[in-house]
What we know:
3 helices; 36 strands; mainly beta; 23-stranded parallel β-sheet
Amino acid sequence: MKKKAGLIIISAAILTLIVLVMQKDDEKKTDILNVKEYGAAGDGKKDDTKPIQEALKDGAHKRVYFPKGTYKVSKDLLVSSHTEVYGDHAGIFPSSGMESVMRIKGSSVHIHDLTIDGKEKSLRGITVEPGSSRVHVSKGILKNFNQPNGPELSQQTVSAFRVEGGTSDITLDQSRISNAAARNPIKGWNHKVARGVLISPGSDDQPPARNITISNSTITSIGPKDDGDGIVVQGFKERVGLIISGNTFTNVHKRAIKIQSPGAVIKKNIIYNSFRKNNHYTTYYDPHKYDMWAAISVYADHTVIQQNSISGSGDYGRIIDVANASHVKIDANYIQNGHRANYRDSSVVSITSDKPRTGANITVSNNTLANGRYGIFAEKKIKGIEVLNNHPINVADYQNKALKETLRES
Length: 410
């Protein structure tokens, strides 16, 4: 009897264990929301907006999954807090003009392994809206953005990835951004403006964006030359805490990086000037003197440019362009005008200001400065520049006369 009772107890325990395992399996299944099970076709023909948005609406603390396919949408998709969105060889594209294919508004959002193809019908790929935090976008492809037709969007700035103010802890990593272009001048400025990544307030009342990282990604074909830049931060007076690290830039028409808000670290990026006499302004006067304006432009304080590699076939107006900025460190970079370039008028590092600046606290150290009229050009009205241990190669003057005099005075 005792033996039989023991067998009954063991059998009951095994049955309980099986039930628990089955419950866990069911829980795991419900953790993944398959958009096709919500009715999305993924055939590139049917409008999948409604079923996808229903899945995203149920996505809190779950994973929204896009199986292999091409998903057509007619309205922007909203991703809210505590949602993971990912795909398996899956792409999303707009059927008609829209502002942004996907909008993020919430905290703890992860989007990865998805392709967003604007088909030149969407102004943006992904927009991170005010109030969002802990947003991570990785292993994605964002491509083919332009100004849609119509009065609302046809004169606005194009951007593949847009981060607005009032956001924090936003990361774009291991992604590919390509072909963000402007066909029309933007309203109020009359120049064509496009960005691979744009970090800026959407309105004057938005607080700063903080702790933004763009890393290990490729950014290519951003144009035109009028104002086509790879990564831009602007519109914030307080330090943003922006890290731009390990990215590769090619075929970016005006400049790879533009800093107009304080607090940026630009480190270990590769910037390549892809042009040679085939990149021209359309809304500016074009002197045809350079192929890109700059690799990096710094117009804000507290910026570090370190261990980057800058080269190419064409030439720059100036390669690193520091204007009206203080507390700037340019250290241990390889900075070279293109091997096929005409660089007789180019400065490798240019430091300028609209007004006299004392105590600028700008350091240029341990860099290789190759192929230019000047290795370092600086205006005499800027005081507080330190130059240390740079290696000039094929430059007519390592330092211009005004900089030499300023350094002697200091």
